[in-house]
């Protein structure tokens, strides 16, 4: 284990790396994928979207698309 000034620099470096890593993880988007077919699907998409598991999103933005059949 480093001592003296080296110990301070080591502690600062480790704290910085952990802080940056935590910030990067906490800024990740929570994106959701959901589909519903009338009478054939789970209705959680319509009734309680927050109950759905988020998907891994590595992008900076999410895009919402709604497609309806006529």
From TrEMBL:
The entry's keywords: Signal
Span of the signal peptide: 1-28
Origin: domain of life: Eukaryota
Record's protein name: CG34045
Species the sequence originates in: Drosophila busckii (Fruit fly)
